[in-house]
Each structure stands twice: as structure tokens, then as C-alpha cells.
Amino acid sequence: MHTPASAAFFWLLLLSAVPTAALAQETTSAEGEGPSKAPAAKLERVEINARPQSDTDLRRRAPVAKQLYGREELDKYGDTAVTEVLKRLPGVDLSTGAPRMRGLGAGYTLILINGDPAPPGFQLDQLHPSQVERIEVIKGPSAEHSAQAVAGAINIILKDAPKTTSMEARVGLGYSYDQPRPGLHMAYHHKQGALAYSVPLSLFSWKGVGERTTLTQSLGSDQQPASSLVHVLQPNWGHGYNFAPRLNWKRGDDDNVSLSTFMQKGFWHNRLSLQPLSLQGRPVLDDPSYNEGVWHNQNLNLAWNKRLDEDRKFELKAGWFRSGGEFDNEFTRAAGLRRVWGGNDTYGLTQAGKFSQLVGDSHSLMLGWDIDHRRRSDERNTQELAAAPVLEQDQFARVRRLAVFVQDEWELTPQWGLYLGLRHEQINTQSSVEGQPLRHTSRVTSPLLHLNYKFDPKGRDLIRSSLTRSYKAPGLNALTAPYAVSNRYPDLSRPNDMLSPDRGGNPLLRPELATGLDVAYETYFSGGGMASVGVFVREVQDLVRNVIALEQVGGLARYVSRPQNFSKARSHGLELELKGRAGELLPALFDPQTALNLRTSLNIYRSKIKALPLPNARLEGQQPWSATLGLDYRARALPVSMGLNLAYTPGFATQQTAQQLQTQSASRSADAFVQYTLSKQMSLRLAVNNIAPLDGRNTTRFDDGSYSQTLSYPRTSYQLGLDIKL
């Protein structure tokens, strides 16, 4: 007999209110260092299952709230990049490029690769889904991972070394603009005795275009009101590769050594073409430009896992990484060519370890550490005209991060589960900014509590609750970014405007601290479906926002945008999710044997910033709500499967500062696929992404009357792929 839901909910909230404390400190002196890294996997007693656990089974058994998406979801649409998979997941938004959860900015979402923070410069949009085993969307931080997860974390689990010898290949042809672009993924997996290795290689290319029309009202070159209408066409193209060999050496039943590497390189180009029309006065216009560059990323990790006995286990990790890029931008001006070029280089070492111990029948203790040392150098050169001197800007930063943690997964009863964790991180940054040395230290202690209640021991219905402390550390670029002059107003002897400010870093930034409460009810159906209702609250201190203000530059007042600790903020929301077989969810409409799966989600978000008692003073980019609907169908008579996914976000306004208001129009995404299975080893898939997209309308308006309104025209893309497995 189940405990009544109302009583369980009351006790859950009561226990979640256990007082916790967190400490965050910042010290700044006249010199600087700092960022991230982590582990994964707890010690568990061996259980024998009659069949492999599904994604839903793994989600139900997890000690913290998470969503899991395995090979079926990854293969479904024939995507060529992991970001194309992420954009269809409930509560994940990619409208600004980087993945965001709960409507919060990209920096609030922690990106993990195999449980470790992604190395700097890692290009998630160029990671092929065929290299991924599953994706975990984690709603709250845990002690063994970095606590830099205010909105949550997305953990990309790469494929492990194989259990059998096999080969696979995926040949693709994509089209979105001008001409089709090829892509290829292939992998060879081999196992012999104690050794197993995998050699995957992905070759990718792209060609697209950004098309938009911008209406601008601001001061002209004569400092009088001016306006212009500019049609912009910006084709972009490039190519690159991913190479990620992995080796596994099973030295015994309880002793395993693994080596994993990841190498990534890409070459990009874009050309900015303008068709301007002056509507009033003498407007200042952007310059046509040609831009190109390269990025690279290398990563090597060595791990040793050893089970000492039935109850004890340890893991040691060591890693090396290097990433960077170069750029070369040429602007065509009436007076001659303006050129800006440079690059950055980051390399570092990591080391981590953890020890797990089962205590009795109810406790699983873990303690560990995490060390990260990295150095970054940046170079930026500017030449206004061919005969003018070159302005050189060089800087460096060294970062050291040390984290220690302890956690206890405690099975209070067969129905009550408690997770307690404590993590302390210290980040030291030593840098040289515009010739001035700086030392910056951040310390954050994060207590974490997750409590689960199962209405029955099998966990078909359960309530989850979390009370956590997380944070967002300032990025190196925010702390040490060199002063960058506006491309529209490069002449420092003349003023600029708020629409086109210069930019710079702020070495005095403090980390944003967030106290979070999450409560969710999950129910799992016998046919494999599930439903979830969750609410969350985040109280954020020292919110960082870019603020535009006048500064003296070379004796002249110019507008400069710099990140600042702006205010306190609160964000809260409601998250609904439902998925399963159509015959199980809607038995009155569908036969139980119908091979149709349905999934839908609705997310509602609200936020408020204390320093802005104005309408629409929300966290940057946080939409008021979003919704998704998806269906997948497999035909009985033919070897054909197909699917459709719809996503919608309404338009909204954001009061950035008391002087700046931004508005963003509604967005709609529709993706569809059809797959024909030729044989057990071969299938053909056609996918169409962004069907009938809405034009985008974004406006930035300042209280001095200046504004910029951009109308963008997104395009539909097509992907044809042939999968071969041997």
C-alpha cells in the first residue's frame, strides 16, 4: 500500500530544508591563476540482470535527477554533430550556439566529457554522434563533478573500447546552401585477449550562409542623428577532422588500464558582403570583410581502475591537453585595408583520483581529488592601413585548480535514499593584462544534498529533492581579455556609440554563487514510458553582466563594455516531461501493438534581477517558456522507420541594464527523418532539419534613442546518409 503522495511530498520538502552552508572567497592582489576537471562512476555491488538496462531504467536508478539518451536517440535522425542531437532534448536550448539548460546562459551549464569538464577550445558541434555512447542531462551538481553547474550539466559519454571486432562506416552528404558538402565517419574496433582498441575517424565539411537585414539608428560620423538599412550576406564554409583512438588493457578481473585520445582540427572561412542604404544623415557602417582561421584540440587521458576487494575500489587519472586557434580578419575600408590577426594557445596537465568504499549494506562512500594546471597565451595585432604601424597586444594567464570532495550515497531504507556531498575548489589565476601583473584567487565550498523517496521498493513512482550550492567562475577571457577596439569605430581619436562599444575584461570579477532547490515527481510505466513534473529555484549572488559605460581612452571618452558583478538574481521554473508508446499513453486512440512512440515536454521559466526593478528584468536570454513534441513510427510491412520533432520558443524581451533593452522574436524548429533498412548491416537515411523556419527579429535599444533591429532568414538543411556495419 503506497504512502499518500501528499504526505510524502510534505516530508520530502521538510527534509530538503536541512540547513547547509557554503563559503566563497575572493582575493585580488597586484599579480594571477585557475579552471576545471573531474571524475565519474561510483562503487556498486554486482547485480545480475536478465536483460540490458534501458535508458529509462538507468534514469530511474540514478541517485541524482538526470535524463539519459542512448544509441537509439543518437542514431535516429542521422545527425552529423552532437549539437544537432542536443537541440531536441527537453530543457536544452542551442539558439545562441553553446548548449544552455533552464533558459540560463551557456556559462551556467557544465559540459562534461566522460565525467570530466570539456577541455578549453573543445568544439562540441564538430563531435560526431557515432563516437558517443550516451548523453546524460544532469539537473543538479554532485560532489564528484565540478560544482560549476548552476543550471545543470550535460555529460557526453564517449564509446568505450569494444567487446568484439567490428567495422562501421557512415557516409553522408549535406546541403544547406550553394552546393552539397560530404562527410565521413568510420571506425575499426578490435579485441584480442586482454587488449581491445578502437580507431574512429570523422571527416566533416560545411557550407552555409547567414542572411539578414539590419536597421540602425545612431549618431553618424558627424555626431548628428543618422540611420541606415543594410542587407548582409555572410557565406561560411570549412572542413576538419576528429580522430579519437582508444585502448583498453584488462589486466585482470578487477584491474583495468585505459588510454583515450582525442584530436580535432578545423579550418573556417566567412565573407561579409554588405548592401547599405543611407536613410538619414551620415551613418557609420560596418566594413565588408574576409575572415579565416583554424582551431585545434588535442587531448590524452590515462586511467587505472582497480578493485581491491568486494567493497573497495580506486581510480587514478592523468591527462594532457592542448588547444588553440588562429584568425585573420581583413576589413575593406574606403581609406584602405584594415587587418586584425592573432591567436591563442592553451596547454595543461590534469591529475585526479578517487577511492570508493562500501560500508555495511547501506553506505557507499567516495572521496577524491582533482588537480588542473594550464597556461594560456593570447596575441592580437591590429594594422589600420597598410603603411600604418602595427599595434601588438600580448598577454598570458596561468591557472591552477585544486578540488577535494567526499560523498556518501546512503540507502536509509528500501524506499528512502540520501546523497550527501561536500566539494571544495580553489582556483588561482596569475596573468599579465596590458602589461600589469595580476593574481586572482577564488575559493568555493559546496555542500550538496539529494533525497529520493520511492513509493514502492521497485521505484516505479518516486520523488526527488535536491538542495545544492553551485557556482560559475569567471572565464579567463572575462578576466584577462585584451582591450578590443570597435570594428565600426576603429579611430581612437573619435568617439563611438553604445551600439558599437569597445570591449575589455575585468580582473576583479568574483564568481557567481547559486543556492538551488529542486523537487521532482517521476512515474515509470510498465511499457517503458515515464512522466515527470519538476520545479526548481536558483538564488544567484554576484550576477555577472556586461555593462556599457564611458571610459577615458587616450584622452577621449569612449563607450566600453566590460563584465561586472551586477546584482543578485532569482530564477525559478516548472518542467514537465512525458514519453512512451502511444498505445500506453493514449490507449483509447491507439492499438497497443502500434509501433509509435510519443514524447513531449513543457518548460516554464521566470527570473528577476534585484538591481533592475523593471518589467522584463530577466536573466540574459532566458525564454518565458518552451515546448517540444516528437513522434517516431516503425512500419510493420516495410523496413521503414520515420520521425518528427517540433520545438517552439515564444518571443520575449530582456532588460539588460537600466539603459539597454533587448527583444527576441519567436523561434520554431521542425526536424524529420525517414530511414530505410536495406539489410542487417546497411541502412539509408534522409533527414531534413529546420523545416519552414520562422524569420528572426532581434532588437537592441538604448535609452538615448539609438537602436539596432536585425531581421534574419534561417534556412532548411538536408542530410543523406548511408550506414554500414560489418
UniProtKB/TrEMBL annotation:
Signal peptide start-end: 1-24
Compartments in which it is found: Cell outer membrane
Keywords annotated in UniProt: Cell outer membrane, Membrane, Receptor, Signal, TonB box, Transmembrane, Transmembrane beta strand, Transport
Ranges of residues in domain TonB-dependent receptor-like beta-barrel: 252-691
Gene3D superfamilies referenced in this protein's UniProt entry, alphabetically: TonB-dependent receptor, beta-barrel domain, TonB-dependent receptor, plug domain
InterPro entries in the record: Beta-barrel_TonB, Beta-barrel_TonB_sf, Plug_dom, Plug_dom_sf, TonB-dep_rcpt-like
SUPFAM superfamilies: Porins
Membrane topology: Multi-pass membrane protein
Ranges for domain TonB-dependent receptor plug: 60-152
Family affiliation: Belongs to the TonB-dependent receptor family.
Identification of the protein by name: TonB-dependent receptor plug domain-containing protein
